[in-house]
Specification:
transmembrane beta strand, mainly beta, Oar-like_b-barrel, membrane, transport, signal, Immunoglobulin-like, about 1150 residues
Length: about 1150
Amino acid sequence: MKIRYYLAASAAALSIAVSVSTPVMAQETTSSVRGTIESDKGPVAGATVTVVHEPSGTTATSTSDADGNFSANGLRIGGPFTVTVDAAGFETAQITDLSLSAGQAFRLPIILQSQQEIVVTASALQGATESSSGPITVLNREDIEGVASINRDIRDLARRDPFATIDLTNSRTIEIAGQNGRLNRFSVDGAQFSDDFGLNNGGLPTSRGPVPLDAIEQFSVKVAPYDVSEGDFQGGAINVLLRSGGNKFHGSAFYSYTDENLTGSRTKGRDIILDFDSKQYGGVLSGPIIKDKLFFMIAYEKTEESDPFDSGPQGQGFSAPIPGVSQALVDQISTIAQTRYSYDTLGVILNGIEEDEKIVAKLDWNVNDDHRASFTYIRNVGTQANQRNTSTSTSSPTLGLFSTGYELSEEVNSGVFQLNSNWSEKFSTELRASYRDYNRGQTPYGATTLGEIAVCADAVTAGSVTSCTNGVPRIFFGPDQFRHANALNTDNLSIDFTARLDAGDHQFKALFGYSQTNVFNLFVPSSLGVFYFDSVADFQAGNAGRLIYQNAVPSLDPNDGAAEFGSSSFTFGLQDDWQVTDKLLLNLGARYDLFANEEKPLLNPNFVTRQGFSNRVTFDGRGVFQPRVGFSYEATDRLIIKGGVGIFAGGTPDVFLSNSFSNTGQLTNSVTIDRNTSAAGCNIAATTPNVAAICAAALNNVSLSTIPGLVGQFLATNVSSLQNAPVNAIDPDLKIARQLRATLSVDYDADLGPLGDGWLLGGNFLYGDVLQAYQWTDIRSVQIGTLPDGRARFGNLPGTSGPNQDLLMTNSTRGRSYVAVARISKQWDFGLGIEGSYTRSDVKDENAITSTTAGSLYNNNVFNTPNAASYGRSIYEIKDQWKFGVNFKREFFGDNETRFSLFGEYRSGRPFSLTSFDSTGTSSSARSAVFGTTGTGSRHLLYVPTIGDTRVSFGDNVVNNVVVQTAAQAETAFNSLVTSLGLEKFRGKILPKNSQTSPDFFKVDLSVSQELPLFIGGAKLKLFADIENVLNIIDHDWGALRQVAFPYAATIANVQCLSTAVPSGTGVVNIGSTPAQNPNNLPAVVNTTSTQTCAQYRYSNVVSPNVDLVSRQSLYGIRVGVKVSF
C-alpha cells in the first residue's frame, strides 16, 4: 500500500508572495529538506528517505534518527521533487510535486500508517512549509514568464518585492529598504555579480543585467537574511539561480521589437519627439549529455537599441528643454568651433546606440549519489550612449553637445565551479570557486584633438571672467573632462567552503571564504585641458577665462597616474539551526569579515605635515563581527510568526578605496589658471619665473588643439603646487560600514467565509540602525566663525591657501529606518491570482552615497554645517508605496495557455531639498565667500527668514546690466514660495534636509501571451506583448514621472554675504571696499572671501523649484514578440 501527498500551490508553489520567513559571500545555491517521521506510536527510527529531482534523476538519501529526524542537503533548486519514505512495518509514503527554494529548508512532517492505504491530496500535509526567518520574495521560472519587462532586465523582477523601489531616472537602480543601490549584492549561481568597483548607478557591472531572463530558474530578494552565508550588503541581497539541464531536451527561441510607433508621444501637454527602434532576440537549449549523469544548458540574448535623450534646446521637441538654450545659439557656437578651431561639435545629441549581448552556459554532473558538480560560464558585453554636461537648472543651465558625450563599453567574463558532497548521511560539504574579469572603457564621441570646452552664452563678458552669469546657459563641446584618461580593469578570484553537520534537532554549519581582487584604474581628469570662455565674443576671439589642466608628473603621460592595487578578504562563519520544538526553529550564528591590502597609496609628506597622519591608510586589518539570531514559529496550522535581529556589513564599492590610490597629490599635479578680472595677467603668483608668458600662452589667442608647452612645463615643475595638491585619504580610525537590522513577520492563511479559503495575509516590520556609515569631509577646511543663521563658517587650514581639498573618508553613526509592509494574495483553481502590498517607510541618513569620486561624494549632498552632509530624511525614502498584481492563465483550447499578468505601483515621489546658490564657491576656483568651503555652490540648505528678519535682505537680480527681478519682486516671490511649499513653520530656521517631495508616480504594466500549437513534436508558438505604463495609453496626462533631478536639490535663491546689515533693495558694492571702488559710499560691501565679516545674507533671483518631466519613462511602451518552445 502507498500513501501519496500532493502539495497544494498555497503550500509550496505560490512564490511571488513574500515568504516571511567585497567580502567573501558563500551565497546559498542549493536547497534542503528536513523533517520528522512519526507513527501513532511516536518517532520512527531507521526509516529510509529518498529525495529525487524528477527532471534529472538526481537522488539524495537520508535515514531518520532515534527522534525521527531526517535531512537531505545540497539539493537542486526548483523541482518537482519526489520524497519517498520506507520503513519496516509501515507502508511506503510518497510526497510528490515538491518545489524547493535556495537557502530555505523545506520542512516535511510525515506520519506513517501500518495497514490502511491512504491517498491525501492537495494541502492535506499539514505543517509543510519553507523555513526562512527574514522577509524574502521568490520568483520561479513560471512567475518570471509573466513579468512585463520591455528591457528584459532582472531589476524588473526585483521591483516586485515590497521593500524594493526602482529608480527609473538613475540607471534603473534598485533601492531596497531605503538604501542606495550600490549597497545591494547581486549574485548569480552563488558568485558575486554586483558592480563591485561601484561606478554604475544601477548596481550591476553592465546596464541591462548579466544573464538572459530565459536562463533563470529562480530569483529572490532578501532584506534581512539571518543565515551567516549572506553578507557583503547593507541594502538587499538579490540572488539569481540559473536553469540546469535534465533528462529531456527543452529549448526556446524568441524575437521582440519596439520603436517610436509603439511608444507614446505625448505627456502632460507636451509632444515628445522620439526616433528609435529596439530589437531583442535569443534562445535557450538544455538537455542530457549522459542520461541521469551529465546535463547542459546554454542561453543567448542580444539587445540592439537606439536611445533618445530628454534634454536639448528649447522648441525642438525635447521633454526637458534647457532654459535659455536655442538652436540658434547651438548653431552659433558650432560655427565658431568649426571655422576658428577646426572642430566639429557634432551638434545636438538626439539618440545613442545601445547594445547588450549575453551568453550563459552551464554543465551539471551527477558524479555519483553522494557527489554533484556544476560549472557555469557567463559572458556579458554591453555598450551604452551617455550625454554629458547637461542640466535643466534655472540657476546654472547647461547643454552638452554630441561631442561631449561618450560610449560606455563593459565586458564581463565569469566562471563558477561548485562541488556538493555528502560524505555521510550526517555530514556534507560545498566547495565553490569563481573567477570574474571586468573591463570598462569610455570613448568620447568627439575627436580627442582638444579637451572640454565650455562657452558662456553671454554676448560679452559680464562681471566675473571665470563664471557665467547666474541663469545664463553654458554650451559644452569636446570630450568631457572625466573621459580624458579613463579605463578600468578588475579581476576577482573567490573560494568558498561550507560544511554541514546533522545532529538531530541541531543542524550545524561552518563556512570559510577567501576573495582576492586586483584593480587597475586609470582616471586622470582634465589631462586634455578644460577651457572656459566667459562670452561668445571671447570664444570668437580665442580669449579663455580659465584653463584647468591635470596630468601625471613629471612625465605628463596620464597612464603614469593610474592606480593599481589588490585587496583581499576572509570570511568565517558558524551557525546552528536548532529545531527547539516541532513548532519553533531558531537560527543562531555569527560571521566575521576580515580585510587585507598589500599595496598602499604613495606617501604624500606634505599631507602628513599639514594633517598629522599618513595618507597611506587602507582597509588593511579591519574586520567586522556580525552576530545574528532568527526564528520561525508555527503558532497554529494557519499562523506563522518569524523574525530576527542581526548585523549586516560590507557592500563597500572598491572605488572608495581606489580614490586614495588615485589622488595622493603625488602621482598627478593640477593647475587652474584664471584670467584676472581687473588687471592684466592671471592668478599665478607674480614671483613665478616667466609668469606673463605662461598666462598669455594659457589664456590668450588659444588654439585648443594642444596644451601650451609653457603650461605643461609649469605643471611638471611647480613644486609649490604639488605641496598644495588635493588629496583623498582614509581616516586611520575608519570602521567598516555596518547596520543592525531587526524584523518581525506574520503570515496567516485565512478563511474569509463567503470569499473563500486560502487568503494569504501577511505583514513585515523592519527596523534598521546605522552603526557605522561612510561620510566625506574636507579636512583642509576649518571653522573660522559663524554666519547670520548660526551655522559654521569655514576657511583655510592654517598654513594652506586656495581652493584645494583634502577629502577624508570617515565614519558617521547617524541613520535609521522603519519600514512596515502589509500583504495579501489569493490563488483560485480556475487560474486567477491576485496580490497586493502596502509599504510605509521612514528613513534617515547623513551621506546618501550618491556617487563614486570623493569629490562627488562630498559635493552631491546637502549641507547644514557647510563641511559635511546633513542628517535627515533620506533621498531614498519612498514614504508610501502600493503594489498590486492580477495574474490569469488558463488553457481555453487544447493545452495552449492564455495568460495575462498586470502589475502596478503607486508611490510617493522622491524627496528633495531646497537650497541657496553661492556662485563664488566651486571646486575649481575659490572658496565660497559665504560659507568658506569649496565645491558645489548649490548644496547649502536654505535659511528661511522671518518677516522683517534682519539676517536677510533682498536685492536686485541683474543680468547683462539689466534688472530682471527687483528686490521687491524677489521678496514677494520668496514669501509666496514659503506659503506654497509649506515652509511657514521653518521661518527663522535652516530648512531640514529633503523637506520637499516630488509628485506621486503611478505606473501599471501588462504582459499578455497566447500559445498556439505547431504540431511538431509538441512544440508551441507563443505570441506575446509587454506593455509598460498602460495608464499613458488611457490618458496622456497619466503615468507621468516628474521629479527634481539628481542630486535632488532645488535652488530657489542666490545668496551673498554683506558686511553690514541693510534694508532690502539697498544698493551694495560688489567689487571691493576702497573709496575709488565705492564712490557713492554705499553702506554694504559684498564679501569676496569668507574671512570678511558677514552681517547679513543677501537673497536674489528667487525662483520656484524646477521639477523635471522624465519623458521616456512617462510614455507608454509596447514590445511585441514571438517565441517558439519545445
